[in-house]
Amino acid sequence: MEKRKKKVLLKEKVKVLELPVFQEALGVVGKSEIRVDSQDKVRGKLLYGADMEFPGALCGKVLRSPYPHALIKRIQVEKARGLSGVAAVLTAKDVPGRNGIGVVIPDQPVICGDKVRYVGDAVALVAAETEEIALQALGLIEVEYKSLSPVFSTEEALRPGAPKIHENGNLLATSKIRKGDIAKGFMAAEVILERTYTVPFLEHMYLEPDVTLVTPHPEGWITIKGPMQAPFTTRKNIAAVLGLPMNKVQCIQTPIGGGFGGKEDSPIDLGAKAAVLAWKTGRPVKMEYDREEITLTTAKRHPMIIHCKIGAKKDGTFVAFEGTIYDEQGAYASLGPLIPPAGGVHVHAVIMLAGPYVIPHVKVDGYLVYTNHPYGGAMRGFGAPQVNFAHESLVDELAEILGMDPYELRIKNCVELGSETATSQVLDQSVGLKDAMQKSKEAFQWVKLWKPGPKPEELEKGEKRRGVGMAIGWYRTSIGTDSDGAGVNIHLMDDGSVLVYQALTEMGQGLLTTLSQIAAEALGVSLEDVRMVIPDTDVAPESGPTVGSRSTTLMGNAILMAAEMIKKPLLESASDILGLPVERLIAKNRLIYDRDNPDHCIELKEAAKRSMMLGRRMMGQGWYTPPKSSLDPETGQGTPYFVFTYSAQMAEVEVDLKTGEVEVLKLVAAFDVGKAINPRMVEGQIEGGVMMGLGYALMEELVIKDGIIQNLSFQDYIIPTSMDTPEIIPIIVEHPNVHGPFGAKGIGEMPNIPAAPAITNAIANAIGARIYDLPAHSERVYTAIKDRLNKKV
Amino acid sequence: MRWRSDMVKEKIEIEVNGEKRILEIEPDQLLVDLLREDLGLTGTKVGCREGECGVCSVILNGKIVTSCLVPALKADGGRITTVEGIERDGELHLLQKEFIYQGAIQCGFCTPAMLLAAKNLLDQNPRPTLEEIKRAISGVLCRCTGYQKIIQAIQIASQSFDIPAQTPRLAQD
């Protein structure tokens, strides 16, 4: 199939990249090895940040604003300072360096000085001998606010004369796509469908609460320990806040109890606050946020209002797509704005809005807007789940209008090898979308299960109705910025064991295991010979952040580069011993053997010992930067992301017609991951991701009234439980990525993306009415059923 | 680091993971803090302190409880099993092994509580149905796995689980 395509495309003079050929069967990569950290995890022995002893530490606490938008007129801290057991009470003027943090723009004060911009903003910090005293001290701080008019929606924020949240106004960024001639496109359309979708703020709800342990050293440097997805970004921010050079800030990752993008921002927030307290007091400081504080203050998934319009021929061929995104940033910039050329949540959402479809005329405008709500940051999918819900709902409804099977409409228009995207990027390799669709169709028995939705009278009959729905999606590997390098050092010991120095982080996804597998494969040792150091910015080279589904691919490549540097001298040593030319030698599973006569071999460690003895190189260094990203800021045209993961998901639901309750019965989820380094862990990402998508579809949202979040706890912010788990069938499809180690591309975020529209489309198929606003909780579904019955359409 | 008052200490006697312990505790101390801070059993996690997420679950007198809601005083005279107590002489419990083999672990933060909820189920009902498994672990949240591999691990463990002779309730199948 791939080969045939290649020929056709070559005829059309589209350049398609050659696939790499692997000479040897793989020994470790591609096997479902058990997790390297699993023993400690099942025995309860793994120490997370909160489990670590930290003797002599002060307890750090934050006084928070009860107002969404207000000026700080006066702040009285003397009483709190006078309390016995209080080591420090700090306000904005006590921040030694830059009083601002942020992954892209440092617009979030560590401690607010002149004004507060959301409920939960920090106005003072306390460090005390015990938590009890710290809390008491918070109560003694007096703050006088002058309330300002708050802004709670993008619409209000963009109105002329709206209160300014930041000095430069409320419009933080705009992005656009201009492809073809949109007017001409819609002129040619025979059917046009226009809709508006809304999606809410979401909280990550990782189970491990945020914690940071900060130790200042008398020599003038500082250590920050805690769960963190991005130790290097944390280091950079905290160095600026303390006014220190970056080499005087050490960030050490503790095992992460779930991150999902949330622990990219929050370690900077906690770390900077605790670091300022530690720096001022000269004592270690521990700061923990409890559950409510996490929900109140940390980054969220961006809410969006998405208008879109699609034009098609009667046979279903897409001809034009137009969209507008109002993307609510909340109080601070976090990961919303552009990181050139194509990084940041906002531009990513704009790029992805037209979906993985071939559409000749595309126009998209995006507005990223500050409000007095909590701030949007990274959350599994980084802007893509929002827009995927929009385009997949739209395409599904279009199929209904055209009287087509939604599968057929999608496969007619979706991208394949050689296709051009909305940014005019030619997909020159690794496009397994149709394959994933085909495989999920078979596993789901789509042809047997799908039929058009019910007529209104059918809704009056019976208690429950079933429906099926599907959605497709795509997601980039890596982050589309210019600064996307990943570095690693690898040391081979003379006993054949290997130490890998890198600082991308394990947060449950299995990175320690996949990277160990790649290192073992590359060096010819076995999995248990490889140990990864604890991510530590003092020890490991700059690795970048653990985000953007980039880690396996980028760090995997860096590891291959480093391994190559070690392997050459290693094989020379083996060549000395075996008396064979290096070219004939293969290193695998702890042996080095003759390619033509595998029995003629030595143990790898013998060669390692010889290399060490002769002073041959025992360490390698890898620095991998992915192919360059491009995006014209005026036209939104270019090649923003060098490769995409593709997915097709199908859902069967049962809707209770009397209550609107939805039960998901079955989910099939197929993914083109390039190459599954560890298939069982890929399945783990798929199952966990689609269940998070089920939460997005049916139950999750932050309810905010007058700037105050109404559901701070797990009791009110509902996430899926085991009772919600349907039968999930994960399917792995492998169309190798030429830029990936062994062909791999990212999988962490993709599963979270098309699950929600697959489920809401199934609801539409069950009840013949659509849900345009997430989540599709029972009240919304009930109302949709009633509206349909009343209108009888 | 939780609330610490200067109240008079109370003496309690509990059995933790098969070992008798006589402890002096503060009357307002919670079981979760007693386990984590006084006994160093940090396999029991804290996720919300409100009995909602379930990651602090332990087995108390044959029942699964969220230890963040149980005053330590209430555990006086009780038998407690934490995740540290389910392996025998260094040999992992069948459930621990299946959690590893089936890929039921991701970040690991809910894993101890999931194991205990599962163990408590199998102790009382060695051959549970799918629905019974789902219900038994429904008090423990997991944000990573989507639960399917956890459920599968428990199913597989239950199929090879030796039913103790004295178990009053025999296999249902």
Task: List descriptors.
heterodimer; A: 793 residues; Aldehyde Oxidoreductase, domain 3; Aldehyde Oxidoreductase, domain 4; globular; B: 173 residues; alpha+beta; Ubiquitin-like (UB roll); 2 domains; 5 helices; 28% helix; 14% strand
Notes on the structure:
The complex is a heterodimer of chains A (793) and B (173). Chain A has 21 helices and 28 strands. Chain A is an alpha+beta fold. Chain A folds into 3 domains: 49-148 and 204-297, Aldehyde oxidase/xanthine dehydrogenase, a/b hammerhead (Aldehyde Oxidoreductase, domain 3), CATH 3.90.1170.50; 304-480 and 630-791, Aldehyde oxidase/xanthine dehydrogenase, molybdopterin binding domain (Aldehyde Oxidoreductase, domain 4, 2-Layer Sandwich); 485-624, 2-Layer Sandwich (Aldehyde Oxidoreductase, domain 4), CATH 3.30.365.10. In chain A, α19 packs across α20 (755-767). Chain A starts with a helix and ends with a helix. By secondary structure, chain B is α+β, with helices and mostly antiparallel strands. Chain B folds into 2 domains: 10-85, Beta-grasp domain (Ubiquitin-like (UB roll), Roll), CATH 3.10.20; 94-159, [2Fe-2S]-binding domain (DNA polymerase, domain 1), CATH 1.10.150. Chain B has 5 helices and 5 strands, in the order ββαβββαααα. A 5-stranded mixed beta sheet of chain B has the order 2-1-5-3-4, covered by helices on one side. In chain B, α2 crosses α5. Chain B is globular and about 50 Å long.
Q: By helix and strand content of chain B, what is the structural category? A: alpha+beta
**Span from first to last CA of chain A?**
44 Å
- Examine the secondary-structure arrangement and name the CATH architecture of the largest domain in chain A: 2-Layer Sandwich
Order of helices and strands of chain B: EEHEEEHHHH
Order of strands across the biggest sheet of chain B?
Answer: 2-1-5-3-4
Number of helices of chain A: 21
What kind of oligomer do you see? heterodimer
The end-to-end span of chain B amounts to 48 Å
Helical fraction of chain B equals: 25-40%
Q: In CATH, what is the class of the largest domain in chain A?
A: Alpha Beta
CATH hierarchy, class of the largest domain in chain B = Alpha Beta
CATH architectural arrangement of the largest domain in chain B = Roll
Find the count of extended strands of chain B (DSSP E, 2+ residues): 5
- Return the CATH topology of the largest domain in chain B: Ubiquitin-like (UB roll)
Q: Over all CA atoms, what is the radius of gyration of chain B?
A: 16 Å
Biggest pleated-sheet summary of chain A: 7 strands, mixed
Please, what is the average pLDDT of chain A? 96
